[in-house]
Give the backbone structure.
Amino acid sequence: MKAKVNADNSGRLEYIYYRYGSSVTREKTYNNVLPNLQARYDITKNLVVRGAYYASILRPDYQNVIGGINATDNGDGNTYSFAVNNTKLKPETANNFDASIEYYFEPVGLLSASVFYKDIKNIQVNLPKTVLSSAPQDVQEQIASAGYSAADLANPLNTVSSTVNGPKTSMWGFELAYS
């Protein structure tokens, strides 16, 4: 079923309703404490040191977790390219640390040096088209639950793309600024 209403004349009214296939209900609840601590110390009138720690979260895009599989026949009737919305995608979380030293010139101007470090868990990465049999287990399970056979899953010519959670990672960097 598909309905669409549009009206536009120096304003906008838009109503879109899509419903395809069967109804599926998914529910996720997030309870997160995200601390934030910032400090500043004026060594002199012109020299300032700053430090910060904060926790952050990046929830998956709605489009990535609503479920659904798009299977495209590669033209030979025997192989498929699957695009899978990953219903088991977890939010990405990070502990972030920042520090900087800033020197302010008279009457205007700035020279600063900053460093940062991020400790990231469940980083969300796009899985490019890859051989289906080497895809993460939860992605393969979603394809199997849609009715595709073990032979389809094992076929080395079948490919899949999806968004998945990567391993724990970290990043760091620095910035020098003059203005």
Q: What stands out?
A: The first strand starts at residue 2 and ends at 8. Residues 125 and 164 are 6 Å apart (CA to CA). The first helix runs from residue 62 to 65. Residues 33-178 form one domain.
